Every structure is written in structure tokens, then in C-alpha cells.
Amino acid sequence: MDGDSRAIVDDLVAYPGHCCAASDAVEVGRTVWAAPFPVTLLRSSSQKVTREKACYRRGLILPRAGSYFTREIAVLDTSVLVVRDSDDTIRAFHNICPHRGNKLMWRDDPFQETEGTAPLLYCRFHGWQFNLDGSLKKPSRRDLLLDFNPDNCAVPSIRCDTWGGFVFIHLDPDNTLGVRDFLGDFKIPGTRSLPKGLNPTRSDKYGFDSFQFFPNFVLIFSSSGFTTHLHWPTGTHSHVVGVDMYFRPAPTHRERIAQELTVSFLNDIVLEDASPLEGMQAMLNSGALKQFHANDEEILVRHLHKAVQDAVAVGERHTVEVLDSDSGAK
Q1: 267: which of 82, 175, 230, 325 lies 20 to 30 Å off by Cα?
Q2: CA 64 to chain centre
Q3: What is the pLDDT of residue 189?
Q4: Which of 118, 140, 171 is the last residue of a domain?
Q5: Sheet strands (E) in the chain
Q6: Nearest of 176, 195, 217, 188 to residue 304 by alpha carbon
Q7: How does DSSP assign 53-64, residue by residue?
Q8: 304 in helix, strand or coil?
Q9: How far apart are CA 94 and CA 118, in angstroms?
Q10: pTM of the entire predicted model
Q11: 65 to each of 91, 94, 120, how far by Cα in Å?
């Protein structure tokens, strides 16, 4: 693992409501529920998707100034552009040109995600150019722009933080909570031994540790590497899952084959877990089921449902406050 990767796992602990480790399931679960819990949130089309913190991909796909990638988030009606600027800062923007609203960075299909390297952000519609920090570099026909302030014509920014080599964004423009405050304090002891945050009991039968970062990111560590799962909502009742695996370079042919077998094994597990989901969602939409019954081995399922309900409740209260405020202003 590189330094960024090790920073993730050293002294890793659980933060209820933000991330939780599988090894801490009992402690976390006993603060949640013991009774059956409701199905409502999984079938209600009235629930709005809250603009919570979303996790992106590893920073290693942005290796140099000008490196960028895009992410389509249709459920929030936006495309996100993430770029490393000339000052080596990773930034995020809505992928839109402030001139006339054209999508900024795309290739053959404006709805296809893309990545690459560019010296600046260029809009192919009318040729407007923007610096890597989103500021306007050069408009077309500047002489015809009357009463024009270039400071008011920047690519709309999105709150962006990095942690452990990962890039996080937050789509709420009023958010002031940084990713480190959200996730907590993770320390680096500077040792090459197995970090004590992993396999804390040092079991000889250790398989892996799984950490869930609410709302859409899962980080799984094993003795051979780590895996990330990203869940992207595409609608009220649908989403896509992206899985990436990371290994250190294999020093022998034997270890390289073992890595390929691990990938194959993970593919089987993901397909096994995912295969019933479409049918499950279809039946939940019927409204016939009112509650779930989870046992003690499904404590993290309870915790997830509790965290989702809490987040939705916060979003609903905020919506009511905004509506009340607007009514009072009138």
C-alpha cells in the first residue's frame, strides 16, 4: 500500500452515523433497535434524495495538473467535474459553462463520463476558456460583452475535500462541515506492520474488515489489498454500484495468480449479493410489506436503516424550515 492507503487504516475506529466497522457491529448495533423496523423509506416515491456527502474515486486518477474526470449524477440533475489545478489542488465543479449553460467537459456523448488531461477548461459551444480553478480565462468576443464582470462568470464550484487519497464532494452549497470533521481523526503510526485498526483481535482466520461510510461508500480491507464500493442513485428505486480493487504489485507469479483469483471470487460474491435486488425492490414497491425482521447478525442492516431515517428526517425538517421562512417573508 502507498502512504495514502496506509493513512486510511491506521488506528481506524468507528463513528456511529458516519462510518462503522464490521468488527464493531455489536457495539454499534445495541445503540440502534431490537424491534422490527419499517420498510417505508425503501418504497416511498415521495422521499427526496438529500444532497449528502458523496465519495468519489481515488486521487491517483488525477496524477498531475490538468488531470480531470466527470461523474454523471442524474438523480440530482447534474454532472460533476473533478480536476487537479495548477497549484496541485483538487477541485470540483458543476460541469457547466456559465456563458450559455453548455456541458463543459465531454467528448462524443454529453451523457458519457470521461476523463483525461487538459491545460484549461474549454467549452466547445462558443470557445469560452476557463482556468483549472474555474475562473474565466478568455471569453469569445470580449468586445461585444457590455457591462460584463468576469469575476461573476466562473464555473460553479462544489465543496471538495480529500482524505486518505480519496476525493469527497458535498453538493450542498451551504455546507460548512469538512470531510475530516465528518469522518473523525485517523492517525498514522509510521509502521509497516498490519495496522492495528485491521484484524484488531489478530485472529489467525482473519478474512477482511468492512467500513461503511454513509451514505454511499464502502471500504473493505484484507491482507492482500483493499476494495471500494461506490453506490450511485439513479432514481428513487434504482442505483448502480461501482467496484474497484487495489493490490500492491505482485512480486511473484504465484501472488499475481492469487490476485486474479481474488478478483474472480469477489465478482461471484457481488453477483450473488446483487442478483435478488431488482426483484426485491419490485416487491417492496407493492407496499405489501410494512416492516423487516433482522436478527443479531444483521445489526449493520439495522444501523444503515437508522442512519437513512435520521438523514431523511433532517432533510425534511430543513425543507419545512425553508418553506416556513419563505412564507414568512411573503
Answers
A1: 82
A2: 22
A3: 37
A4: 171
A5: 19-21, 37-38, 53-58, 67-73, 78-84, 90-94, 115-117, 121-122, 129-130, 136-138, 157-163, 166-170, 208-213, 217-222, 225-235, 238-247, 291-292
A6: 217
A7: EEEEEEGGG--S
A8: helix
A9: 17
A10: 0.66
A11: 11, 19, 10
Kindly tell me the burial class for residue 315, based on how many C-beta atoms sit within 10 Å of its own C-beta (0-12, 13-18, 19 or more).
middle
Question: Using CA atoms, how far apart are residues 168 and 58, in angstroms rounded to an integer?
Answer: 10
What is the tens place of the pLDDT at every residue in 144-190?
Answer: 888 888 888 999 999 988 877 788 888 888 888 887 777 665 443 33
Assigned C-alpha cell, 16: 456511529
Q: Answer whether 328's CB lies under 8 Å from 53's CB.
A: no
CA distance 23 to 199: 8
φ, ψ of residue 6 in degrees (nearest 5): -65, -30
CA 289 remoteness from chain centre: 30
Q: Note whether residue 59 is domain-resident.
A: no
pLDDT digits (tens, 9 = 90+) for 189-210: 333 455 566 677 777 777 777 7
Q: Which helix (H) or strand (E) holds 171?
A: none
pLDDT band at 7 (very low <50, low <70, confident <90, very high): very low
Same domain, 286 and 157: no
Grid cell of 243 as nine digits: 467496484
Evaluate whether residue 57 is within a structural domain. no
Structural domain contains residue 288 = yes
What mean pLDDT value characterizes the chain? 76
Distance CA 142, CA 99 (A): 12
Instruction: Let me know whether 47 and 132 are in one domain.
Output: no
> Domains in the chain: how many in total?
2
Pair (282, 236) in one structural domain: yes
Cell digits of residue 232: 450511485
Cell of 254: 504465484
The reply to whether 193 and 253 lie within a common domain is yes
What gap in Å lies between CA 235 and CA 216, rounded to an integer? 14
Instruction: Please tell me the distance from the alpha carbon of residue 310 to that of residue 11, in angstroms, as a whole number.
Output: 27
| Cell numbers given for 296 | 443479531
How many residues does the structure list for the chain? 330
Question: Smallest Cα–Cα separation from 223: which of 243, 244, 195?
Answer: 195
